[in-house]
Amino acid sequence: MIPAVTASRSVLTVADVRFSRLVQLLGRFGLSLRLLGHDESITGSFWGEPEAGIVKRCVYVRLDTPVHSLLHEACHVICMDETRRASLDRDAGGDDIEEAAVCYLQILLADYLPGVGRDRLMQDMDSWGYTFRLGSSRAWFESDAADARAWLLGEKLLTPDGTPAFILRNG
């Protein structure tokens, strides 16, 4: 479920979304969002520019950072435990089920961004090169993600009705 390619594609970027909405969404989790200049290296980026970066509780982006990348990295911070979060710098680590939970949660959070939504986010994830057993993010989300949902429920990151709890794991 990791982006296989990072070639420039037609996906929504930070420039396409009101920045205050992005700040507000991450702020609900106690995370901060830092916008870097167009020529700056993205702090904490695992994949390199234009992918989002993470350090502790901060997500770093530029205007050309894909929204799916911002949400994915933010969800890594949300889903990791406090011990990993406290020393986080670039590499989120985690296991396969946590990675699946990150993908599931990023799709849910897209619905909280006007002009994005889960349908567009899944389209962008597929376009960017995320890979899923069933061939698309939608097929995975709708038919093969019960383990990711159960993990999020077990960590209390989702409410029983399937909405985000807006808390950090172990927090």
Concise summary:
The chain contains 7 helices and 3 strands; from the N terminus they run H-E-E-E-H-H-H-H-H-H.
Describe the structure.
There is one protein chain. The protein has 171 residues and is mainly α. It has one domain (14-154). It has helices at 19-27, 67-79, 82-86, 96-110, 117-128, 137-143, 146-154, and strands at 32-35, 53-55, 58-61. Helix 2 packs across helix 4 (96-110). Mean pLDDT is 94; it is low at 1-8.
Main β-sheet, in a few words? 3 strands, mixed
Backbone CA Rg: 14 Å
Supply the number of helical segments. 7
Q: Report strand %.
A: 5-15%
Considering DSSP H and I runs of 4 or more, what fraction of the residues is helical? 40-55%
How would you write the strand order of the largest sheet?
Answer: 1-3-2
Domain count: 1
What letter string, H or E per element, gives the SSE order? HEEEHHHHHH
Low-confidence stretches: 1-8
Find the structural class using helix and strand composition. mainly alpha
Write down the overall geometry: globular
Number of strands: 3
Distance between the termini: 26 Å
Average pLDDT value?
94
Chain-wise SSE layout:
Blueprint: H1 19-27, E1 32-35, E2 53-55, E3 58-61, H2 67-79, H3 82-86, H4 96-110, H5 117-128, H6 137-143, H7 146-154
Helix pairs in contact: 2-4, 4-5, 4-7
List keywords for this structure.
about 170 residues, 7 helices, mainly alpha, 3 strands
